[in-house]
Every structure is written in structure tokens, then in C-alpha cells.
Amino acid sequence: MRMCAMALASSKSKWAAMTNAEIIKAVEEKQLAFYALEQALAPDYERAIEIRREVVKAKWCPSAADTHPLETVPFKNYEWDRVVGQCCENIVGYVPIPLGVAGPLLIDGKKIGLPMATTEGALIASTNRGANAINSSGGCTTAVLKEGMTRAPVVEVDSLEEAAALVKFCEENLSILQEAFESTTRFGKLKSIKCAVAGRKVFLRFVAFTGDAMGMNMITKGCDKALEVLKQHVPSMRVLALSGNYCTDKKPSAINWIEGRGKTVVAEALIKADVVEKTLKCSVDSIVSLNKDKNLVGSAMAGSVGGFNAHAANVVAAVYIATGQDPAQVVESATCITSMDKVGSDLLISVTMPSIEVGAVGGGTGLPAQRALLEVMGCAGANKEEPGANSRQLARVVAGAVLCGELSLMSGLAAGHLLSAHMKLNRKPPQ
Amino acid sequence: MRMCAMALASSKSKWAAMTNAEIIKAVEEKQLAFYALEQALAPDYERAIEIRREVVKAKWCPSAADTHPLETVPFKNYEWDRVVGQCCENIVGYVPIPLGVAGPLLIDGKKIGLPMATTEGALIASTNRGANAINSSGGCTTAVLKEGMTRAPVVEVDSLEEAAALVKFCEENLSILQEAFESTTRFGKLKSIKCAVAGRKVFLRFVAFTGDAMGMNMITKGCDKALEVLKQHVPSMRVLALSGNYCTDKKPSAINWIEGRGKTVVAEALIKADVVEKTLKCSVDSIVSLNKDKNLVGSAMAGSVGGFNAHAANVVAAVYIATGQDPAQVVESATCITSMDKVGSDLLISVTMPSIEVGAVGGGTGLPAQRALLEVMGCAGANKEEPGANSRQLARVVAGAVLCGELSLMSGLAAGHLLSAHMKLNRKPPQ
Amino acid sequence: MRMCAMALASSKSKWAAMTNAEIIKAVEEKQLAFYALEQALAPDYERAIEIRREVVKAKWCPSAADTHPLETVPFKNYEWDRVVGQCCENIVGYVPIPLGVAGPLLIDGKKIGLPMATTEGALIASTNRGANAINSSGGCTTAVLKEGMTRAPVVEVDSLEEAAALVKFCEENLSILQEAFESTTRFGKLKSIKCAVAGRKVFLRFVAFTGDAMGMNMITKGCDKALEVLKQHVPSMRVLALSGNYCTDKKPSAINWIEGRGKTVVAEALIKADVVEKTLKCSVDSIVSLNKDKNLVGSAMAGSVGGFNAHAANVVAAVYIATGQDPAQVVESATCITSMDKVGSDLLISVTMPSIEVGAVGGGTGLPAQRALLEVMGCAGANKEEPGANSRQLARVVAGAVLCGELSLMSGLAAGHLLSAHMKLNRKPPQ
Amino acid sequence: MRMCAMALASSKSKWAAMTNAEIIKAVEEKQLAFYALEQALAPDYERAIEIRREVVKAKWCPSAADTHPLETVPFKNYEWDRVVGQCCENIVGYVPIPLGVAGPLLIDGKKIGLPMATTEGALIASTNRGANAINSSGGCTTAVLKEGMTRAPVVEVDSLEEAAALVKFCEENLSILQEAFESTTRFGKLKSIKCAVAGRKVFLRFVAFTGDAMGMNMITKGCDKALEVLKQHVPSMRVLALSGNYCTDKKPSAINWIEGRGKTVVAEALIKADVVEKTLKCSVDSIVSLNKDKNLVGSAMAGSVGGFNAHAANVVAAVYIATGQDPAQVVESATCITSMDKVGSDLLISVTMPSIEVGAVGGGTGLPAQRALLEVMGCAGANKEEPGANSRQLARVVAGAVLCGELSLMSGLAAGHLLSAHMKLNRKPPQ
């Protein structure tokens, strides 16, 4: 698929000199691959994209309208060099996602604004309301209880005995595998390996510290190397796949809920009774009771593993899109149990989130707007003094934002005024 | 929070006449609410946003740099009137998400391009590769097996006997509740109610056809009305919350996996052996075997409910962001079991996705780029001849796109060349 | 394996006339099958068993001891004709399980003793304590919300289109399948079929009323017939297996938790505050709070589906063994959510159990002691006036017994005196 | 409830001297507690039980029949001194469970008979058939991959910060807690503690080696002591309950599936193609294919965690009841994934069972028949040379027996002859 890259490189000047129409013809006649336009016209990526749009408009979905719908999708004045070859292929433009801010939230003693990219009406207003209530009560605190990205290759051996021996080797010789793993990375540290055996297949869940990166790339490289060394010690071992779904990435799974993935974070706030009543318009008893009926019993009845919350995913998705995180990882990052108890006459609320997968470098965090929003939050890029501190801080803020969202939505439901509020603004209803 | 809207309206001219500096001062002195800038300056939303950005820059995160990071976040030349009061609050701009296209995919006899907004390198290239392999084998087919958005209020009665009677009433008098429900909506049709009892709490999972809308709004309004009527028949009933998490929205849950939510779609393709070998560079046996070891056994070992796939969430998230769907609903929309079998010497692959929650109208589908991409796919807006046909078509395409993604990633893993390919492009590794 | 039954029958007199030593020799020389002793010596089953014990003692585990351990296992004076060919093969005796009684419990206005066969010290005492507390407060009430045994064959067709058509056929022609199903049974009534599709495999979960039988036999026969008729309408359909695990029998599964299997029963009691304090030695607040922390939050953290209780399985297993139910079905029968709320100053406790699989006829219920205990409870055999009433009653009692067990153990934990109590009697600790 | 034990002791001679009628009157007039009969008449427990039966017959369920049903329940000639005060209360007799044997199975090079107490027709015959097929192919091998009983108290502290500190203390000072734990037990060894935080509640899952005992008693005592010491270091900590359901005992849970509880055992066998065809009457391809469709896909569709098998619970329950194990622990002990692959032309089958909870001492293992059957299997009582070896051996045999059951039932289903076979004997159908 990626063949002829060199040929392309040497002939770049040729393509640049052609007219758009000529290049389109070349694409249609398969002299130039559809995907290779950026390579052919580098560094004029905007032109490459413009040409691709013409191809798409003409061939994929001819339109009788005066203005082809694709015209509505913007593509100009963007830093495409940060995208090409890194974040996206077959580029035809970009999709703007509306961005609002909630807060700032007083979290661990600092005020931090919460950027949220969303199209769900009322979500930011609601999160903001939660932040106000929390701020009025002295803010929230967070704790990062655990940290480690995971990747679980699946391997095969020739007997059950060998499978048991392989597990034993990993337990007793972690340092050998650590050395191999860490030879591939500056920041990554292999922390442990959790093994599961199914017959002669062994799933090896590597857990690694990955600095300020979300870390999937880093850990995959490290695993690959560690498996190479492992094979020297267990020659019969065959790697079936670098990922055996025991990781688990972007799929619901109990293992992430129980073991954690990325950062395991808890955030809590003690909301004063009068704030609950005046700002949140409900009583401490009513919200505590509803939290049990909905977030515990309701989710239990629904057969949920990790979904003991009202709408954590809304907040996580909005902050993730704003800050260049991987939105597919919302699947596990948004697992959360929301606890509420009456303490004295006040409301103690907390969210426990075992699998917040975030990075301050890499992936979409390098795009201009996303990077800027991380800067606004004070956690962009690699933390030089304390590697990993920026991604941990981002994870704390995600948990804090979820805390705001849970407090606000649950109080709205407890007060029973939510539907009317939503409907008035033609917004989406409660989750 | 939204009070004084009328007061604002009448004084709009006042704010419009002020300088930005004056308005900023008014916001700082709380004469004008931070969130109310758009209302005060309507219809000049761009100016409202510009002013909010100044407030944020000055107060939330003062920066010593020449250029404040927020400057990097775009906000001009956007159709803010489609956003204000509908999709976002406290707006400060928008976040551009790179957009590429895969395919077009031959699906149910038609060629349809797959727009994907993503920052994950290699994702679109991979999906495209899958589409090519499918197209070379005659395309894929899909089936929509079920359709129905859900919402489950939780109510309380005064005894177990009453709880049982309530359940019985709902079973035997569905038509009464249908009439109430349908009085609130032009398209919505209440199909059934599934009840679960926990002590004296009853969870009523309403299932409704919602036309071309994803339907959360529609169904919530309908539920509210149906509960009002239900209360006339069961006076002791108290509504604890309009959503009791038995819905289940945006949380992992077995109930969605088993009952479905939104559209239940299956897509399949028969890939010829030589396409598997030449295009996908692996053998039918190896990919079938890996599908069992990874997507079935690996996910089983991980305690997954609904995550029997390689990376459905990647594809779903990318198509959802491109087309204005709710990215938080990726949580359940991406549940998927990927099946592979050898049929003759060819590869039969299918994806079964019980909970694809999509709409062709409402939410983010009204934003310009998102709407345009739905148009490109041929399923924008309400289908006049056959209400619901557009959202069903969108669901089919989502499943088809996931089929491409599964085929491509699994073949890459089976061929063992994935890490190198990813790493070469500094892209993220396999899921 | 069962061949030569006729040959055996005709030569019965031959075996009966031989000495034990001769028969043992014949077994050792494989002239008589080890399993066929009962057939050869019928109706003298005790002699057959005695001979088998000799074979086992001599060949399987020769013992130097004066008394072979197997001598300790009783086998005499038992009604083996109720066992042979029905309940057990290769019989060598029986295992006595100690039997105690708790209660009687005041349930739905009647006092019913709770027979429990168990070796877990303190279990019956604890259940009895719960029954006392419930009786002191006016007893408990129950409701059977749903009823239906299930069986889910898995079938295969030749395309996705056919799979969709098959599902549609089952939905639209239930009566055809009902007729087929019901032709095989006097009591069974096919209520519904729930279909799940995975590629070209279709899982058809038949739900049937099975009278006073637990019903697995009845429903399997009915399914077999219904599939035969279904195949006439969908000729390409192939039955892969009569059970496709979507039933789900004797395995943990969300489908049983959500859809129910057997009887779905709720039991509740309102325990007066002074009973909680004086009999149960804890406070209403403390037990309500612990129920949330342990049975809801603790089980949620553990990733449980259906295990939101303290020790329902203990009680279910003990009653099942006493009454001839299938102890392997404890797996799903014991799924239970225990709810506790403060109502006024009293304690409202309930247990919701969606999958109580019991029968008043069939299986082990025909054995002498087990049958007798069902008689003592007033629900033995088929109810002539109202088929199914006896098995429903048994299910109610099971739920009531679980209610006793939950109340007692939870109050003990809340009072903090459990360990000492258990240890004093050298009994097992709390679950 | 257990008060007045001393008073009873001193007056024993008094009761012994009375007639049965007098004692019955005393019980009815509450001069003697119903539960205290054994204490009053010790050591003549049989008489105590006889009297209790009279009370039950007269008061709980008067019968017009000539023979009261309870007469059918045996109680004579049993070693009640092994039961009273240990295994059962309010004793009225015992329930005989038919006992058969399967095998002997060639497991890890030794032939071991499989005692099974069951009322499910065909179960033993089927297990036996599996054993024959395995023996014909050279037997099966097993591996114990992990060992540790668990108990998880739930505690509470006063802030999130303290919760984090508590977790850290447990991680960094395991040896302090080990010392405390191990001061209470001769065999028990605390191996690790896994902490989960939900707000200010902390669940501490203790994992301990418990020698040849199943170990719930041992670990609970150890936890109690360790918590006492932990509280000295974290004075704000309050123990909410000695079991917080994060253990998890006798409830379905992902944590046991993923972390294991008791013994984690895998058993495998390579069945020769001709054995599959001749003994098992199916083909290797058909059984491998069915294992995927039923045990993997079917269970996945059903939302199962840990139920990827055909009927492990049947075999586990039968062996547990025969050998005095806790039948309520079948819930988690029977979780199992059954793998089948074609290796060459043969069938590789394995069962992976992470949570086999068995003991060779304690609980019901001390009863005469149960103890004898453990002796027959060669693993009764505490292993003096290698503590724990007997319970591990029992766990291996359980896994081996399950392997037989899986092989046999799956081949029967694959061959399609199961229903007829079952029906002929009026037995229960496949699981």
C-alpha cells in the first residue's frame, strides 16, 4: 500500500509542476495513488487536500446542487504539516467541534478552566453549575492511586506444562524483561506483567509507566522487544498477536475496571448543605438517595460493569476532544463509580475512575488548538522536572470535571426540573 | 441560572452599543453573566465569543507569552447561530478535528464514502485497506435487525404488591401509555416497556421508534407524558428520576448488549481467499484462528461484555465525530462481536453491533460540516418518504465501516507486520 | 455405550444366579459392563451396588487398612428403584447431607418450615434468627413477577439475509412454533422466542411455561420439535446444537439476570426498629448503610453481575439440596439484589431474584427424603388444580429463606459480632 | 441466642432423665430452646434429633396421613457428634444424595476415581464416557497456576487523602500485616493485599495460602488481626464489615475470574482423532467448531463472565457434594473456559478454572462418607509432608473431571444424538 514512496519522493517536482486538472486525471488513471497526494505535493499539503476534494466530489458523490456539500467542510489555513503522516490519511479537511469552557474549577487548591468540545446542549452549562457548587464549598481534591498503561500480547506454547513454565518465568525474571522493554524507550518503565492462561495460549498483560504520553506506542514497542527476549528463554513460544484483547483497549472489560489502565483517579468534594439547597435546588437526602437508586441499583439491574455513574462519558468525551486525547478511549476512561454520602448535614460526593487514559504529548495533543488548550490548563507537553506529572495533572482535571458533571446532573434529576430546563433550550435530555 | 433572559433581551441594544472593554468590565463586575454574552450581543455571536475569550485569557490563565495560547484556537467565520442555545455554552471557539475519507465502500450494492474525523494515525489508511479488500470481493451486506431508542425512568411505590401491579398494568395497558407517549411527538412510536423491579423501585425501560433522530429528546418527552398518565392509574407511584440508568445511556451495560439500543445491525462480507492472501497478506486460517484467540478468548479472559472485537470504537468514534453524532455514545455504540469463519476456502467476516445510536437530524448533525458529510453519504436530515430510513442507513454505514476496520486490523495482526507499519509512520499501535 | 440392553434383559436370570465373585470376575473380564450391573441384577439393585463397590475397592483404590474407606459410605436400605435409570449411574451408595430446619417463616400469611441440607455451621442458626425477626414484624410477602424456563438452540443459515428472515419468521409466526412445541407436552406452553444473531449463527432463546417441573427436559423436547417445523419453513437452517449457551444454564450470564429464568421472585419484609435493635443487635441506619457499602458498592467494585447480596447462594444451595433441586443451578438461581431502606424508623428489606429454577416434580424431587421435605413444605408434586402453583410456591419459599439469611448475616456484620460468634462454634465465617 | 449454655450443661442430667413427651412439652412451653436439644441431651444426639422431629411433625406441619412425611427422612445410625456444633443446627436428619463413580481418570499419570453425588441422570455416564476417551488418548495433565483464598473487609477513613495513604501503607508495609495475620494461624500465609477505593471506603482483598483447608475461617481470623494492627497505624480507619463483597464469596464476580480465588487450575488432554470419531462419535472439526459457536460466541452473546463452558457446574457440584465441599461455592468454582483446537488431526481440549475453592480438611470434609471419598481419591486431610498438597490435588481432580464432562457433552451435542439419549432414560437434557 505504501510502496513507491521513494519513487514518489524523487518525482515530487514533477507533480508540483502540473495543473490540478492534470493531477486529478493522474489519480483517476491510477498513475498517482489517491492517498499519496500529500507526498506528491509536499510541502503544499493544502493543495493536495484541495485536489483530493475535487476527486471525491466528482467521483464519490456527484451533486446536482450549485454548491457541493463538501464545500461546507473547511480545509484552509490549517497547519497540515502537523497532521500529514501522523494523525490522518486521505485528508479532505477538518470538522469544527464547538468549544466552551466550564469553571474554572478549584481543584487541589488551584483554579483550572475546563475546556469542553461538544455538541450536546446544556452539558457545559451543567458542568459549570457543578463547578460553582464545588467552588462554593471549598473546591475538590483528587488522588492518583495507580498509574500504568497496558498492552497484552497473546502467545502460544506447545503444552500446558510450558504455559505454566512461561508464567513462572515472567514472575521470577521480571528484571530481564524490564531491561529489554526499557531498552526501547527513554521514559517507559515496565512495572509488572499479569499473566492469564487459556489452554496453551498465554496472555501477558504488560503494565508500564509511560511518562507524559498516553503510552500505547511506547508500550507496544517495549512489548515487542520484551517478547523477543522472552523467546530466547522460551524458544517454543510463538507470538500470535501483539494485542490479545486482554489489554483491554477501547472495549468494555472488567479487567480495566478492576486492575486499572492509564491513571486510577479519585476526586471528592464536600458540598455544604446550603449550597446543595440553594445552588443545586435539592436536598442532601434526596440526592444521596437518588444516587443509590440510579447509579448503584439501576446500573446493577442493567448488568453494568463500571457504569455506576450518571454521565461521566459526556464530560470525558468533551474534555478528550478538546485536548487531543483519543475519543475511542472514552469507552474505558469513562468507567466511574459515583459515591454520595451524607456527612453531618453536608453532601460528600466522589468519583472513582480507574482507567483514565490521557497524554500530554503525542497523538492529537500536537495539533494547534488541542495543544493550546492543554497549555491553558497548564499541562501541555512533557514535564521536564517530573516526567508524567503533566499527564497525571490532566487525569486529575478530567476526574474533577466529571465530579462537576455528576453533581450537577444528579441534583437536577433529584430536583425534578431537568426535563423542562433541557426542553426549553431544545437540548438533549439527561443521561 | 437562565433567569433574566427577558431583561437581557430588552437591553440588547445597550450591550451592542458598548465597547468590548466596557462589556468585559461588566462581566468582571458581574453586571453581565459570563454565560450570557451571546444573548446580550445577539446576533453578533462572534463578538460575544471574542469578548469571552478576552475574559478567559485575562482571568483564567494569564500568560506571559507574546501570544496567548487561546489565540491558536479558531473562532471566526463559523455559523454560530447554529450553535448558540443548542449545542454549546460558554463558547470560546471551535476545535478542528482532521477529516479523511476511506472507501468508498460497496455496501448493499451502493458505493459510499466513509468520512472519518480522527487524530489516530493509520486508522483511515487501515479502514481504507479493509474497504478495498471488501470491494474486491463483491462488497458487504447489512441487516438492521431491530430499532428502538430507550429511556428508563425509575419510580417508587408503597409495597411489593403495588410494584407487581404496576408491572402488570404496563404489560396489559401498553396502548394507554402509547397514546400518552405519542401525543408528544410526530414521529415517535412507543414499542414496548420492559420492567425491572428491585424491592419497591420499578425501572421502566421504554423502547421507542424515533424516526431519523437519535431520539433521546423525543423519548424523554414521551416518557414524561406517559408517566403522568401512568400516575393517574397508579396514584401511589412517585417518579424518582426520569433516567434510572436502566436505559442505559453512555455507560457499559449488559442490557444494551442483550436488548439492543438504537439500531441493531449486522454487516457481513465474504472475502475471497486470494484477496486475503494478496491484499491482506495473511491466510484465511491464520486470521480465523486469531479472531478466536483475540476477539473471543482474549476478551472472555478480560471479562468483557460486548467487547468481542479488535477496535470497533476507533471507527465508530471517527465516523461519529465526522457526522455530528454524540461521541459519548461510542461507549455502547461500539459494542460489537466480530465473527470469522472459513467458508469453502474463503473468509466470512461479520460484525454484530446491537446498539448503534445515530441520528440524521438533531444534535450535532445540524452543524455545517457535519451536515455536509451526512449529505455526502446520502443520509442527511429526515427522510420524508420513509421516516427513519436515513438514520438506519447511517447505522448500516457505521457497521460497514467497522467491518472494514476489523478486517484490516485483524489481517495486519495475523500477518505480524503491524508494529513496523505503525512505527514507520510514528503512528499509534494496534488496539 | 448403552448397547446390548436387550441382550442383557434376556439374560438377567443368568446373572442373578451367579455368585458375587463370579459376577465380579465377569466385570473384570469385561463380559459384563461396569455400568450395567443394575440392569443385569434388576430388581436387586442393592446387590448390584454391593458388587460394584467390591470392584471399586479392589481395582480403583486398594487399601491396606482393615476397613476400606468405601465401607463408610452407606448404600443399604435405600429405594434404589427410584434412582436407577433416572438419577445416577455407576452407583456405589449415597452421601448423607445433614439436614436442619429454620423457621417456620411467616410468608404470605402462612407459616412454612425451611428445610436446609448443609455442612456450613451457623447457616441454619442464622437463617432461623432472620426468620424470627421477620415473624416478629408480621412476616414477609412475595411476588412472582415472571415465569419461564428457557433453552436456546444455535442454528446456522447461509447468509445474513437468511438470518434476518429467520428472526422475522420467529417473530411473526410464533403460533406455528407454539403449536409444534406444545404437541410434545401436556403442560408446557411456549411463551416467546428471543433471537440473537452473530453473523450467520442465530441463537433462539425459547421461553416456556413448564408447569410444576423445573422444565429443562420438557422445553428441550419442545424445542427439538419446534426446530423441526421451523426447518420446514427455512430449509437452509442447520441446527448446530440444541443448547447454544444463550439459555443460559448453570453458567453466570447477564441474560438470566436481565430476562429472568425459571421464576422471577421478589420477597420483602418491614422490620420494626425495635426488632432490629433487640433481636438483630444493630441499628436500622447501620444495616442500611452497610447494605449500600457491601452489597451494592463492594459488588460493583468486584465487577459482579447479579451478585448484589451477602450470601444468597448459601441458603439457595441448602434448600435445593434438601428438596431435590439441581445444585448446579445454584449458579444462576442465587443471583439476587438485596435492597434495604429506612422507611419511617423501620427497616424495609427485600430480595429480588430473577432466576429461581425449581420444580416440584422431576429430577431429585422423586427421591424419598427430598419428596418428603417438599410435602412438609406443602408443595410436592404436580398441582392438579393449578398447574405450576407448587413450583411457584417453592420459589416463593426459596426467596423468603434468602430474605431471612440476608437479614441475619447483614445485621451480624453491622453489629460486628460475627467473627466471634462463628469462631466460637468453629464455624465458617461470613460470606 | 446461644445464651444459657452453661445453665444447660449443668442441667444435662435433668433432661436426660425425662421422657420424650416431657421434653417435647418443655420445648413447647419454651423451657428448653428448640435449637438446644442436642446440648441438653448430649451425647445422645440421636435422641435429641428424634425429639425435634416430633416437635416439627406436631407443630409445623400436622399430617393426616398414617405416616408423616418426615418419617421418610432418615436420621438413625449417623455419627452426629461430627455434625453437632460444627456443620448444622436444628438437625432433623440427613438427606441421602445418590453417589456414583466415573473413571477412573488417568490424570497426571495416576488413575483416580471420580466420586459424584448427583440426581441428574446421565451426568455420571457422560463424565465416564469423557474419562474413557481421555484415558484412551494417554490421559490428561493439569497445572495449578495460582493459589490463594481471599477475604476483603471494607473500611472507611475520613478523607480521600487518608484513603490514598491507607492504600500506600498496605503496599509498603505488607510485612507488618503479614506478621499480624500469621500470628493467628499455623499454616496460613498472607501473600498480598489488593486495594480498591470508592470514595472514602477502601476494600482490602487479602490473599492467603491456607494449607489444605479451603481457608475461609483461617483467612477471616487473620484479616481480623491484621486490621487490628492496621488500625494502630491508621487510627482513623473504621472497619465497616469483615467482608465487603470484594472477596468475592459465593457471588458471580469478575474479580474472581480475573484474579482467581482458591486454586487456579488448567487441565488439558490431546484426544486422538480416531477416539473422537469412534468413542465420541463426532469429528474433530465439528466439535472444535461447536465449541466456538456455543462456549465462546453463545456465552459472549449471553453476557457471561466466566461461563465459557458447557456444564462445568454439573461436575463441580457433584464432586463437591461427594467430598464435603461447600456447594454454594460452586457459583465461582465452576467458572471455566473450555478451549478446543485441532492440533494435527487430533483434538486438543483444555479447561481453565481460576477459582476452584476446595479443602481436604474442615467443613463437610470431616463427615464420614465425604471423608471416605477423599480417602478413596488419595487426598484426605492435611498433607503432613507438603501442606496444601492434598487440597491442590483435589483441585486438579476437579478440573480433570470437568474436562471429562466437557469433552463428553460437547461431543454429544456435536454428534446431535444427545436429546434422544437423554430422553430414552427420562433424563435431563444437555446444559
TrEMBL record, chains A, B, C, D:
It is found in: Endoplasmic reticulum membrane; Membrane. It is a multi-pass membrane protein. Its main location: endoplasmic reticulum. It is an enzyme of class 1 (oxidoreductase). The keyword Disulfide bond does not apply. Gene3D superfamilies: 3-hydroxy-3-methylglutaryl-coenzyme A Reductase, Chain A, domain 2 (3.90.770.10), HMGR, N-terminal domain (1.10.3270.10), Hydroxymethylglutaryl-CoA reductase, class I/II, NAD/NADP-binding domain (3.30.70.420). Pathway: Metabolic intermediate biosynthesis; (R)-mevalonate biosynthesis; (R)-mevalonate from acetyl-CoA: step 3/3. Its EC number is 1.1.1.34. It catalyses: (R)-mevalonate + 2 NADP(+) + CoA = (3S)-3-hydroxy-3-methylglutaryl-CoA + 2 NADPH + 2 H(+). GO terms for cellular component: endoplasmic reticulum membrane; peroxisomal membrane. One of its GO terms (molecular function) is hydroxymethylglutaryl-CoA reductase (NADPH) activity. InterPro entries: HMG_CoA_Rdtase, HMG_CoA_Rdtase_cat_sf, HMG_CoA_Rdtase_CS, HMG_CoA_Rdtase_eu_arc, HMG_CoA_Rdtase_N, HMG_CoA_Rdtase_NAD(P)-bd_sf, HMG_CoA_Rdtase_sub-bd_dom_sf. One of its GO terms (biological process) is isoprenoid biosynthetic process. Keywords: Endoplasmic reticulum, Membrane, NADP, Oxidoreductase. CDD domains: HMG-CoA_reductase_classI (cd00643). Belongs to the HMG-CoA reductase family. PANTHER family: 3-HYDROXY-3-METHYLGLUTARYL-COENZYME A REDUCTASE. This is 3-hydroxy-3-methylglutaryl coenzyme A reductase. It comes from Strigomonas culicis.
